Amino acid sequence: MKIEGQAALVTGGASGLGEATARELARLGAKVAVLDRNAALAEKVAAEIGGVACVCDITDTDSVNAALDKAQAAHGPARILMNVAGIGSAKRIVGKDGNPAPLEDFVRVVNINLIGGYNMARLFAARCAKLDALDNGEKGVMLFTASVAAFDGQVGQQAYSASKGGLVGMTLPMARDLAQHAIRVCTVAPGLFATPLLLELPEPVQHSLAASIPFPPRLGKPSEFAELACHIVTNGHLNGEVIRLDGALRMAPR
Ligand SMILES: NC(=O)c1ccc[n+]([C@@H]2O[C@H](COP(=O)([O-])OP(=O)(O)OC[C@H]3O[C@@H](n4cnc5c(N)ncnc54)[C@H](O)[C@@H]3O)[C@@H](O)[C@H]2O)c1
């Protein structure tokens, strides 16, 4: 699908990988809605790229529908959904104090990363399926953001890995399901990227993380994630696939 002129939605668009994706889409001529629960940052990014900020919580259906309505009123119906919003977490299943990990933590991470992603996808897809197909036969395309932790999760990453593994697992069945509606679905599994989360770590820790990447031995740039996200939109034969973007990184147990 040609990006220029299309209305696009980016969850997590206020920061990090989502922000870079929103900026790249805008640079390529899309009309971009920044969907994020951080109102101040969403407004800032949207203003800078000539887009619209739609504050929402991806786990809350009413809030997402209101955001989709606002985006549609500003830009027309969206054909591109970039699901980038997500949170991290690290908790050992049995803590150093011998107590079991709090179940609420597992529920919270799976609820945002996996169920929130599915919620966005279903609400977007139902709207997109009603649109006319473009000249190339396509109606829409969406992307999920997993993580290499879906495959090589580290100590303490059960909740995060389970949530990202869930996104990986639903990519193919969702692509098969939405084929009848001419909507493609792909997932990117990033390795270690230089987003606010990692840039807040002490420099020696950043260096040792970077050194663990075979090549190139540096953190990924958010712009590299954004380039791949936009390539998935423009390459009409990419569908039902999970793509690792990690410089050949395979995470060690800890
Ligand atoms: N940075 C990395 O190295 C890396 C590696 C692998 C995967 N990822 C994944 O990439 C995605 C983006 O990561 P990032 O590093 O850019 O993080 P980030 O914290 O910079 O950005 C995430 C954004 O998502 C938003 N968000 C969180 N929960 C939300 C909710 N319920 N509703 C709406 N918005 C919500 C936050 O407000 C924030 O703006 C995440 O899904 C993360 O798991 C990141």
Structural key phrases:
oxidoreductase, NAD(P)-dependent dehydrogenase (Short-subunit alcohol dehydrogenase family), 8 helices, SDR_fam, alpha/beta, Sc_DH/Rdtase_CS, Rossmann fold, 15% strand, globular, 7 strands
Task: Give a written overview of the molecule.
- With 254 residues, the chain is α/β, with parallel strands linked by helices.
- The chain has a single domain (7-245), classed as NAD(P)-binding Rossmann-like Domain (Rossmann fold, 3-Layer(aba) Sandwich), CATH 3.40.50.
- Helix content is 44%, strand content 15%.
- It contains 8 helices and 7 strands, in the order E-H-E-H-E-H-E-H-E-H-E-H-H-H-E.
- It has helices at 16-27, 39-49, 61-75, 103-128, 158-178, 196-199, 203-211, 222-234, and strands at residues 7-11, 31-36, 52-55, 78-83, 140-145, 183-190, 242-245.
- Strands 3-2-1-4-5-6-7 form a 7-stranded parallel beta sheet, with helices on both faces.
- Strand 2 (31-36), helix 2 (39-49) and strand 3 (52-55) form a beta-alpha-beta unit.
- Helix 4 (103-128) packs parallel to helix 5.
- 43% of the residues are buried.
- The mean pLDDT is 97.
- It binds nicotinamide-adenine-dinucleotide.
- It holds the Pfam family adh_short.
- Belongs to the short-chain dehydrogenases/reductases (SDR) family.
- InterPro entries: NAD(P)-bd_dom_sf (IPR036291), Sc_DH/Rdtase_CS (IPR020904), SDR_fam (IPR002347).
- This is NAD(P)-dependent dehydrogenase (Short-subunit alcohol dehydrogenase family).
- GO terms for molecular function: oxidoreductase activity.
